[in-house]
Design brief:
alpha/beta, 306 residues, homodimer, 9-stranded mixed beta sheet, UDP-N-acetylmuramoyl-L-alanine:D-glutamate ligase
């Protein structure tokens, strides 16, 4: 039985950064997410790949209890993305996008997946997100991600989906674009007025901002000496975040905050190598050690006032 | 006896932000710094003003034990700066700078000031910073700030000053420009190789990064609903930071981290109104309350691993 369901993309990425260049490496939102989440809970993945996809490449996920029956192999080629990063690595320049099988993707969700307690709708067409939400038969914590393309081209479908979920995870610029508010505090409040009880805002190398009904939380990013490839960092964060939540089994504010720290830990690994490589070879002890190192960078004791 | 000496500017600022417009309000690095630091320790301020300056305007500082004998009134007008902020408030657009008395400023430091245990060299000509350092007769913790203008125009003089101080406090972009390193971890290491044992990096709304010989520290900024005027936020941060250090009387890593939190608390007040207004009317209890609120936004308990 899976505990966490993700619906998103599997891709072949070609990436250029100041540190090197790779071609046709495994990527996509659902794969980055699953790669991270599978350290913490049993994940079921729903995504489409093409005839060119070799399932052997994701064999390692099954060793981490990932259920891959939700991956459907369809006529045509796997989704491909080609991008480049400049020196500051904050913004990807998309060089080429071949949607291929994604273009007509209609997720087929194995029946038993729909009993998962935690569901992550990665960045896909908001109409598909709603299509998935409507199939869910029992209470679950549903979390949604999106991107500027949908904000700009399917705003009202996106808002319909947002209204039906428990949390959203978005980038800082996306939240501002969605709400027309510069202030994250105000922007998050606008989203919470629509339905979600929690808004998680990714700020890249600057960490994460979170708002829930009773408070705010801020976490810096783990300080790395060098970032090799930020592709998939956001989905990896979401994977660590939701994997942790699903493992603990609740969404109390305290659990959400710890899940953000865990998501940040996982994202810090992801950017240390191209594609999914770093987290593919990651050990659980490394996660513990990085958490300890991260906590040391955040702790300041307590100030005593006179 | 003063405990903390600051050398910098006093200015009349004219500021436009999306929230309003003010003309000829009190500002300048030394004044913003002192305004914040005087909540924590006895400050002596060294700066030049013109004949147009009315000392009654800073009368309130004397009530906070600030020693203003170091302010010299010189022929000509007080330094004036005119700037505007766009919607994102991260970058000031300078509309006009009238150096006036600053142009030929040669700080005259009262003799007893030179026995202060903590010294802050605000953003002034690095040759003047060295001129001040060379007058100091006994061990003191010396901290230096600078700006892109000096990095671009007096780089070698600046590096001479940097070599002689214990810490530097700079903006993220300034540190990168100084070291030609994008990675803050690497950039801070380069500075520490020159002499300083601690590098404090201001990242505006994203908080603070700190490196010392044995570790790193990261603090987000306090989340505000609205930022009215960021002018002086960096100097206010430095004032809270150094005021706290001078009050505690040491520069252990733990004290430095707490000082960063206190600096962040003070900076969060500064941006809530134009110029020095907010901190001028601030009460000590408000500082305590904001610290408590800030701590709540940063605390995530502890993650237990299996």
């Amino acid at each position: 039985m899976i505990n966490l369901l993700v619906i998103g993309t599997i891709a072949y990425d070609s990436i250029e950064s100041p540190f090197g260049k790779v071609e046709n490496v495994l990527g996509g939102s659902a794969l980055h997410f699953t790669n991270a989440a599978s350290f913490f809970t049993d994940v079921g993945i729903v995504a489409a790949v093409g005839r060119d996809f070799d399932l052997k490449d994701i064999k390692f996920l099954e060793e981490r209890n990932v259920d891959i029956r939700g991956i459907s192999i369809e006529e045509g080629n796997t989704f491909r993305w080609e991008g480049r990063y400049g020196y500051d690595l904050n913004q990807a320049i998309t060089l080429k996008t071949e949607l291929n099988v994604i273009e007509r993707f209609k997720p087929h969700i194995p029946d038993d997946y729909l009993s998962a307690d935690f569901i992550f709708l990665a960045n896909i067409d908001p109409e598909l997100q709603t299509y998935v939400i409507d199939q869910i038969k029992r209470p679950a914590i549903i979390v949604l991600d999106t991107m500027n393309f949908w904000i700009e081209n399917k705003f009202s479908a996106l808002m319909d989906a947002v209204k039906k979920v428990d949390m959203i995870i978005v980038n800082e610029s996306e939240l501002r674009e969605m709400t027309k508010e510069y202030s994250l505090v105000k922007a998050a409040r606008k989203i919470m007025e629509l339905g979600p009880s929690c808004v998680v805002v990714k700020r890249g190398e600057y960490g994460v901002f979170m708002a829930e009904r009773n408070g705010l939380f801020l976490a810096p990013a783990f300080p790395l000496e060098e970032v090799f490839d930020p592709t998939g960092a956001g989905d990896t964060f979401a994977g660590g975040f939701m994997g942790y939540l699903a493992n603990v089994g609740n969404v109390n504010p305290e659990t959400i905050k710890q899940a953000i720290i865990m998501g940040s830990v996982m994202a810090s690994f992801n950017v240390e190598d191209f594609g999914i490589n770093r987290i593919k070879r990651l050990g659980y002890d490394e996660i513990k050690d990085r958490y300890t190192a991260f906590k040391r960078c955040l702790n300041f004791g307590d100030i005593k006032f006179k």
